[in-house]
Amino acid sequence: MTATKTSRVTRDELTLLAAFLIALTATLGALFIGEVLGQMPCVLCWYQRIAMFPLTVILAVALWRSDVAARAYALPLVIVGLALAVWHSGLYMGLIPETITPCTQTGPSCSDKAQMTILGLPIPYLSVAAFSLIGLCLLNVKGSRP
């Protein structure tokens, strides 16, 4: 008789999968906006992409290796990206004066609100949601490294 090894997906792996799928969706969405729709990202969007794109790779590798310790090196990117997204949302809402806007007059601007929406939802708010959800997923990973 041979014993068969049953493979069970743990709660931590499902949580990592959710974080990865959110990061992948955000990354593909940003690439779609830039490459397919041809919308040039503003400075703050670029910085948020710098935080989001590596998260996709980090979370994919963590998921592949069942490495729940991934939160130790993914959370700093989430925190930086979330801070930038909150700042960007503040600019979008008008809570932060436009005199300190990092966007230039000649380049893409945060003030063009018609181009800053996807399905009626402002891109800065979607970014806040993505980074927040990824952060919550990572904070809910409880296991230890195998």
TrEMBL record:
Domain of life assignment: Bacteria
GO cellular component terms, A-Z: membrane
Family annotation (Gene3D superfamilies): DsbB-like
Any GO MF annotation of the entry: protein-disulfide reductase activity
Annotated transmembrane regions: 14-34, 46-64, 73-96, 116-141
Localization, UniProt: Membrane
Coiled coil: none
UniProt keyword terms in alphabetical order: Chaperone, Disulfide bond, Electron transport, Membrane, Oxidoreductase, Redox-active center, Transmembrane, Transmembrane helix, Transport
Chief localisation class: membrane
Keyword Chaperone among record annotations: yes
Membrane topology of this protein: Multi-pass membrane protein
One BP term from GO: protein folding
Family note: Belongs to the DsbB family. BdbC subfamily.
UniProt xrefs under PANTHER family: DISULFIDE FORMATION PROTEIN-RELATED (PTHR43469), SPBETA PROPHAGE-DERIVED DISULFIDE BOND FORMATION PROTEIN B (PTHR43469:SF1)
Descriptive protein name: Disulfide bond formation protein B
Organism: Paracoccus aestuarii
Organism lineage: Bacteria, Pseudomonadati, Pseudomonadota, Alphaproteobacteria, Rhodobacterales
